Amino acid sequence: MPLADDLAAFQGDAATAFAGAADVAAVETARIALLGRQGRIVALQEAFRAAPPEEKRNLGPLFNAAKQAAETAWKDAQARLADQGDGGPLDITQPAPAHRPGSIHPLSRLGREVERVFTSMGFSVVDGPHAEHDDYNFTRLNIPQDHPARDAQDTFWLTDGRCLRTHTSSVQSRFYELAGQGRLTLPLRSVVVGRVFRYEAVDATHDNTFTQVEGFVVDRGITVSHLVGTLTTLLKGLIGRDDVEVRLRPAYYPFVEPGFDVDIRSPSAPPEVRYHDWMELLGCGMIHPQVLRNGGIDPAEWNGFAFGLGLERLAMVRHGISDIRVFHGGDLRSLRQFAY
Ligand code: FA5
Question: 72 and 175 in one domain?
């Protein structure tokens, strides 16, 4: 039965070829020759089909066994080479691929520095949820439903009625409530570095997702001088340019009275840089008595100041960045420039 001999020869050749293949290419060459679409297995199959029916009964199991043995030998060879790597020579003098160390995002780094400056002044670092109740984000801050100040801070609303907080002042509401309930003891000296969200037309100085630094102090006998002193310490510590000027303008925020906007500029910066001329950096003021009352704190005994600052704007001044979109654009070529 010559086909039985051919099948035995095929099985033996496959075992030898796959076991002797020294690399992936040799295994593949053997597979094509033996098991490929034009390999020896195809001719054997055709011969089997053409065999007389009475011989097929004996040849069938032989054919299957030979084919299976060849396939097993092929898989064994693949596994053996995978264990050994590609089997090529190992050049131990070859330099390793360059390692590019990662770096902290400029905003994260600046945020940590801000926290350090404040903790050095006795503040504690706190935060609240991004998805916030209307009550904490607006109502308790003297911004009731239908108040026009809501238009200035349009945001994204969740189907359960909460919103993405538009400012870190929502954390003030939460902490005044805790103090009013006696779960925190006054005085309070707190700082928040957190993400906020607004439905905003994005341009060089406005993003729809940005970071605010909120500071708030509740104590006895706090004055605007304490506020100015705290802000000056912060800005001097962080901007690091000799000619930075700071300007306070009266401003309206429903949750402070009096309220101010603080602008800065650095005339020595190139004219195309945004803060060459005045750029708004933060809002601040003395906490409105009603806001304290809303949290259950007696404004006849306690008062304080609060401020909210855009961390991206501060980072822009510090690094000379003229477009805020750099921070969340995810372009490593931009971000790597601020790595150190
Ligand atoms: C507020 O968010 C007030 N909660 C700030 C505050 C806190 C006032 C406590 C008084 C007391 P305003 O909307 O102006 O205010 O934002 C504060 C700062 O966030 C701005 O001065 C600016 O630096 C930054 N900012 C505002 N909108 C954007 C924006 N779209 N993109 C980037 N930064 C922004």
Answer: no
Q: Which of 165, 313, 318, 323 to mutate for ligand 1's pocket (most ligand atoms within 8 Å of CB)?
A: 313
**Could you tell me the two tokens for 211?**
């970071």
Rounded CA-CA distance 17/13 in Å is: 6
Query: Alpha-carbon torsion 24, 30, 31, 37, what sign?
Result: positive
Instruction: Provide the token pair at 96.
Output: 């390793």
pLDDT tens figures, 269-295: 788 777 788 988 899 999 999 999 999
Task: Name the closest-CA residue to atom 33, ligand 1.
Answer: 310
Which domain does 12 fall in, by range?
2-84
In a domain, 197, yes or no: yes
pLDDT, tens digit, 9 for 90 and up, residues 111-140: 999 999 999 999 999 999 999 999 999 999
Same domain, residue pair 138 and 287: yes
Q: Is the pLDDT of residue 174 over 60?
A: yes
What's the pLDDT tens digit per position in 64-73? 999 999 999 9
119-136 residues labelled b (16+ CB within 10 A) or e (exposed): eeeebeebebeeebbbeb
* Mean pLDDT for the stretch of residues 241-254: 87
Do 279 and 214 share a structural domain? yes
Domains held by the chain: number: 2
Is the pLDDT at 32 greater than 70? The verdict is yes
pTM: 0.72
Please tell me whether residues 77 and 111 are part of one structural domain: no
Helices assigned H by DSSP within the chain: 2-20, 24-35, 40-50, 53-83, 106-120, 134-137, 149-152, 169-180, 224-239, 289-294, 311-319, 326-329, 332-335
The minimum-distance atom of ligand 1 relative to the CA of 141 is 4
CATH of residue 261's domain is 3.30.930.10
Cβ of 253 below 6 Å from ligand 1: yes
118 with 71, same domain: the answer is no
